[in-house]
Amino acid sequence: MTARTAAAAILLLAAAACAPVVQGGPPIPLPPGLQETAQLGSVIVSSDWLEAEEDFSDTFSDEVGEELARCMHGTAPVDVRIHLDNLDRAGRLETLIRGDGVHTLSGTVEFVLPGPDRQVVGRFPVEVATSAQGRLGGLLGDRQMMVSEEFGRAVCDQAFGRNPRMRGPHNATRG
User: Fold this and answer.
1) Are the C-beta atoms of 79 and 45 separated by less than 8 Å?
2) Which residue has the higher pLDDT, 5 or 147?
3) 3-class SS at 74?
4) Rounded CA gap, 144 and 53, in Å?
5) Is residue 1 exposed (0-12), middle (13-18) or buried (19+ Cβ within 10 Å)?
6) pLDDT band for position 65 (cuts 50, 70, 90)
7) How far apart are CA 173 and CA 175, in angstroms?
8) How many angstroms from the chain centroid is the CA of residue 77?
9) Which residues of 22-59 are buried (b: 16+ CB within 10 A; e: fewer)?
10) Using only C-alpha atoms, what is the Rg of the chain?
């Protein structure tokens, strides 16, 4: 675990089950210049009560942080605040019987400039759904990791116009 990941996990644990860390308000697109220069600063996460395993905060912090580090490759630190609203994972038995299932996660993400003013420079809702990966994936897979990775990829796509796991023209920055 890197120092950045450890710090993000500590911040996540401190903020879990607390009042939302997001300021709130209408969606704000990330400025195009910042899309190219942003570097991941801290990740702070809050949620109301979520039905999840004890390690969800660690898993979420690690996976989202890894995805954001892949798409925020500039030099200007930007903090990310995330408030999670809903988590729903496909049941293992149900997935085994049906042959597949869906994990969903939703929340609000804000990009904030560090400093005393903590200016919000980007804000948007994120909702993701990902496959349980069939019977075997549904039975043995890490459901929290799957949906957390998907959430991180969606944040990258919405804020920066690129999926950190894809290469090619689809991954070009929106202008």
Assistant:
1) no
2) 147
3) coil
4) 8
5) exposed
6) very high
7) 6
8) 17
9) beeeeeeebeeebbeebebbbbbbbbeebebeeebbbb
10) 16
Task: Give one word for 34, left, alpha or beta, with left for phi > 0 and alpha for psi -120 to 50.
Answer: alpha
Return the closest-CA partner of residue 57 out of 24, 14, 102: 14
Give CA separation, 166 vs 39, 149, 175, in Å.
19, 13, 18
pLDDT reading at 9 higher than 80: no
d(CA 62, CA 80): 14
Q: Express each pLDDT in 71-95 by its tens digit.
A: 998 999 999 999 999 988 777 777 7
Q: Which helix (H) or strand (E) holds 95?
A: helix 92-98
27-56 average pLDDT score: 84
- The one-letter amino acid code at 84 reads L
Q: Which residue has the tokens 């890894």?
A: 66
Q: 129: which 2 tokens?
A: 């759904």
Tell me the whole-structure pTM to 2 decimals. 0.77
Backbone angles phi, psi at 17, to 5 degrees: 65, 25
The two tokens of residue 132 are: 């349980």
